[in-house]
Structures
1.
Amino acid sequence: MRAKTKRSIPKLGLPTVFVLCFLFFLAGFFGSTLLSQDVPNVRPGMKSA
């Protein structure tokens, strides 16, 4: 007797995966911009272009 394995994660559609990836991208983008505002300029000798 072979037991069928149940998948605990339901099959997600392509739009759902796309939306989740987009939300994670936005969260990372805004998080990085907020964190980069708090970091002081460590090398004052470097000139920004």
2.
Amino acid sequence: MSITHDTLVEYLRNQPGLEDAVKELDDVPMQVPAHWEWIGGIHDDGLGATTSVSYRAWTHFALGFYPYNGCDLYRDTRSSRVMLSYVELGGHGARRISYLVTKHSPFIHEPVAAHLQVPPELHDDLFAALRELGMSEQTLRAQAERYKNVSNILEPLPEDRLTGASIRGERGQTQLDLTLMGPRATLRALRQRFHRA
């Protein structure tokens, strides 16, 4: 059995007898105990590597943002409880963060975040595609300036249009590194067309 971001809510909906509360588990060691069976990961290959931007991280599970966009799911073979879990790295050292989740947990599936690396020869095509999606270069740069020192976005983001989180590089001169937020399908398409690592 393998669970992904696309099938998680349906999987949880079909689990019997799960409590409604979202609860952080304090006692899960780095090595997950054997009675917790790995059932899948939330990583979306179409969006590439995880970004460092988080979205409403203390109140919701935003599956397209750090830290949940790279987390693992486990099922307790003794009770059918489901645990969302990831390893957090930082100045305090590595530690496992884990939550019990249910069909009532506050998941956010859209928007998502994606990082693109775009070579100079594709810049004009990229900005033409962004204009067709309602985002000018000026808007992208203004939004990126707004979020440049923000690691956790707290205000609601639109689900149906793009928002710029960061942009580095000079148009037509150097590779552009940008992080965009928006609909999953739109960001998958942009990465497929323009991203060159």
3.
Amino acid sequence: MLKLQVEGPKDEIQAFLYDLNRNSNTTLKQQEDGYRINDDGVFPCMRCEMEHDRSSRVEIIEMETVDGLTIRLPLLDVICVRITDEHQMVSGMSYDIFANKKGHATWPE
């Protein structure tokens, strides 16, 4: 379990925590509003506890076609964001360890 304290304008804190909660690798468990007082004044802050799922660098993404076939894609450094309850955006790097690099336009001679 990680504990995080965020300081700044209240609307920016809320936007940050909303974005953090939309990430499928983190789950916010508890939030506590508060204020930090120092010589410069009083500043809003928020403390929260969260769980972060440390996944491996390679994830297998599965998609199902309308025909019922399953497509499996291994991706590196996957970022998965929930757009709605039914929609997700997935980003990652694809690789092919068996690809013939020679003759490829980007491969150095």
4.
Amino acid sequence: MTSSVHSSLLRRAAFVVLVFGGLAACQKNDASAGQAAGKLNDAAQAAGQKLDQAASYVGQQVDATKAAAQQNLESASAPSITIDPNALASTAQANLQNAASSANAQLGKAASLTGQSLEAAGHKLQQWSAQNSASSANASASSSADSADAQKQMDK
């Protein structure tokens, strides 16, 4: 794109030089050949100055575009994520503390339920034992009474 703008400016400058040259040569006054050459020289210098200005402008635009493109490239390739090790460590520590607290609460709950279950099992065992003792005592008393009756019968 830059070369097409540059060549377009060169064509225009060349055209301006030719037009000034043609006008200077075609002047109908009584100028001598030296005066026509001087005017042609002045026109060529003016066209050269304009051409230099145009080339300078194009060069400035190219430099500005290059600088903007380079800046965009640098900002696009720069990492946008920054990791703070202290914040990362602090977050990890907080997460571990939360996990430990939750695990401790769950273990406490499990221990409580286990204690309740053991207590209920103990009560049932005591009830069974008490019932079994009462049945044994009744059976033993009944057996003793039967033995005593049998002994009395034999003694007769």
